[in-house]
From TrEMBL:
Pfam families: Epimerase. PANTHER family: DTDP-D-GLUCOSE 4,6-DEHYDRATASE-RELATED (PTHR43000). This is NAD-dependent epimerase/dehydratase. Gene3D superfamilies: NAD(P)-binding Rossmann-like Domain, UDP-galactose 4-epimerase, domain 1. Belongs to the NAD(P)-dependent epimerase/dehydratase family. Residues 3-237 form the NAD-dependent epimerase/dehydratase domain.
């Protein structure tokens, strides 16, 4: 059976690809390598270096391979870039997603599994922590707005054309292969800088709270969504909040870093606090996080140590 993974050379996507191949699926990867890397690619996947906005190429790929499942992870994934360049963000995160949805309908895709955001979708005025899916989204960045609009489009495509889908709203995903050079991915950025003995920057006062979920746990949620959770939205997080200052301390200890952080002005579009309630995923997908933050950080540091050798 063929499955299509967009963003399959990226951080999370490449891990999803590895697990699908391990489970015997034929995997087609579409990635324009704007943030993905060739070295992340599984050599048993069929790879197209293409942009999801390219309708003609997407038509060819869907016609040729007839994927039964689409895992849509390709995205402009930086909140900061979305704030500076909302049009660029929308081209990938909205227009690109719509191209995939239209092709999925046309070519009879069984199910569309969408990687959304729990971290950027609920906004600033959240009353309940950990936050359940019943909380009305009020995204404050173009990135969060784009992700939420695709959730709405999925509802439309399900109602209008009978497309089955599952939305996975991720907390802050971290782990091996996360890009330490972008503007997203604080764990990778801190780890790389600490191992190199460089300055570590914290934006704002460091009391921003995030829910950090390990990449292997996120991969498991994606595979469970193939058979469960039709036309539902799920938070994929740990229910545990960690401040950036606490994260700094944990990583400092693991890496043996000997400097203090350098505090910088806060960034636009960053929410103050985000912790996700995963009760619904536990009940309906049979999913819960298995890797603790301490354990996941050790595995991540180990990975970065090897890549820097």
């Amino acid at each position: 059976m063929n499955v299509l993974v967009t963003g399959g050379a990226g951080f999370i996507g490449s891990h999803v690809v590895d697990k699908l191949i391990e489970n015997g699926y034929g995997v087609i990867v579409v990635d324009n390598l704007s943030s993905g890397k060739v070295e992340n690619l599984n050599r048993n996947a069929l790879f197209y270096e293409q942009s999801i906005e390219d309708e003609e190429m997407m038509e060819r790929i869907f016609s040729l391979h007839r994927p039964e499942y689409v895992f849509h992870l390709a995205a402009q994934a930086s909140v900061a870039i979305s704030v500076r360049e909302p049009v660029r963000d929308a081209e990938t995160n909205i227009i690109g997603s719509l191209v995939l949805l239209e092709k999925s309908i046309k070519h009879g895709v069984k199910k569309f599994i969408f990687s959304s955001t729990g971290g950027a979708i609920y906004g600033e005025n959240v009353k309940v922590f950990p936050t359940p899916e019943t909380e009305t989204p009020h995204p404050i960045s173009p990135y969060g707005i784009a992700k939420y609009s695709i959730e709405m489009y999925l509802e439309f495509f399900a109602r209008e054309y009978g497309l089955k889908y599952t939305v996975l709203r991720y907390a802050n995903v971290y782990g091996p292969r996360q890009d330490p050079y972008g503007e997203a991915g604080v764990v990778a950025i801190f780890t790389e800088r600490m191992l190199r003995g460089e300055e570590v920057h914290i934006f704002g006062d460091g009391e921003y709270v995030r829910d950090y979920v390990y990449v292997d746990d996120v991969v498991r949620a994606n595979l469970l969504a193939m058979e469960k959770g039709d036309n539902e939205v799920f938070n994929i997080g740990t229910g545990r909040g960690t401040t950036v200052n606490q994260l700094f301390k944990l990583l400092k200890e693991i890496t043996g870093y000997d400097k203090e952080p350098v505090y910088k002005p806060p960034r636009k579009g960053d929410v103050r606090k985000s912790i996700l309630d995963y009760t619904k995923a536990k009940e309906k997908l049979g999913w819960e996080p298995k890797v603790s933050l301490e354990e996941g950080l050790k595995l991540t540091v180990e990975y970065f140590r090897k890549t820097l050798e």
